[in-house]
Amino acid sequence: MSKSSTSSRESADRAEGRAGTEPSRRDFVRATAATATVGALGALAGCSGEQGGGTPEPKGGGGGSGSGGDTGSDSGGSESVTVDYLSAQAVENAAMKSHFQESMKTFEEKNGNVNVSLQTASYGDIRSKLSSTVSSGNPPTFAEAGGGGLQFYLNDKVPDHKPFIESTDSLPDDFTAANKESAQYRGEYWSGGGMRNTNSNLGISPKLFSQAGVSNPEKELSTWSGFLDAVKRVDKQTDAIAYEETGVPGDLESYWGYARTAYTEGTDPWMRPGDNPDNPTIVVANQDHEDRGKTDGMIKTCVKMANQFSSQEAAQRGDEDIPSLMLTGKVASFNYAVPTASRWTATKDDVKFGWQGGNGDFMLLPHPKVDPQFGQNFGISDLEGVEGQHGGHMWALEQQQCIFQASDAKQQAAWDLNMFLLSDNEFVLPAWGEHYEAIPGLKTKLQAVLDEYDLAQSTEQAYKNADKYGVQYSTTGASWDVRDVDPIRWTDINETISQAIAGQHSAEKTPKLIRQRMKKRLGQ
């Protein structure tokens, strides 16, 4: 709720699974469709067909206001320009849909000669819709292309964004670290950044963990050994699923998050580009690499946790299932907790966020960090003696927005729209403080959100985690600087782990299979 408003926050309409027939402990009636988005956020193939000509020299200005008003645009001179804008964020829930529609009108009022044609698709459909329009030679002017936008850039469907960025007084310095890293490929800016970032965290049911004897969750669940001990007690003393892995390939970003907790200082667990990004060093199952055990150990942790504590549907479980399952006492914990409180209030209006003396409905905490005893406690020798730090995955690559090849006037107008979405407080504050709680794409906007809104414990704690643990929250794949970043993330890593959770191969064999697939993808 806005601190300056007496009205209640508009409840999000996002479809969350609700409880139906009461499931047995290991046999949920309702399972997630296996067709979840393996890369809504995922790999978009480069296609033929090109429209418009080259990269414009952006006009001066173009960089939004520091306090949130005018974008200072000079789009297209006196002639009217139409920007076709394709967005998935615009339909994430009913509140966001309305906010986007009103915000496009606001942008048009501030840029009198620019019209915005807002087109939408779900994150599950935007990949195919964007690929189809590019292939037909009729791409949007501006789109939330995600990591797949890199493929379009490498195939000359997206221009170099460096001139646009350099035309501002604030970029790239004002980008969040994850946004800045994600917008670049080998030092070149292929996108204009993402409107928002989201980070992964541990989520628990205070009622169920309190019932199992936990009284100080911040302390008792801070390490993997402590979390494992508590999960075992929940498993033994309650009828709930003690820990549910979001194991469908498109939602195993949960694993991406806690894989980092075996490391410190933001070290990437999977791949190191070194001096030659065309021939990066794969850490996974690399017997010659000193960090192999940390990476392989966390892959095995993911599979073993799912096999021992999760439901039979874990390999098909999407993160959107969890709120209804946890709020009805069927799931006690998961590792895909994000700042977006509206996911929970869409299921239950009066959610009790936070511990609340053990009576809360949902609490967000940092992912547990690997402690030296965890490997022995869980039977994973690779992790014996390893000590890591809290951290997680930062969704930033997935939200990148690109300008496509078009006339100079259209590209400039699209850039002005990008800066409006990044920097104008009329859009930014309600978007990420009220309608879809998330971390703004510009680090300079976070404090404004915190000052304006009374945030749920889960949102505020997620922000604190990202701030406190800094580089330990990074975007998986952004630093690899390889062309096929999305197929490696979603298919070679996530699909292989999901198959292990489904019982198609063992936890021990999984790292080797991932390595084989990564090497084949990279042509090594």
From TrEMBL:
Stored InterPro entries: SBP (IPR006059), TAT_signal (IPR006311)
Biased composition (Basic and acidic residues): 10-29
Residue segments, region Disordered: 1-30, 44-80
Pfam families listed in its UniProt record: SBP_bac_8
SUPFAM superfamilies: Periplasmic binding protein-like II
Gly residues compositional bias, start-end: 49-75
Protein name, UniProt field: ABC transporter substrate-binding protein
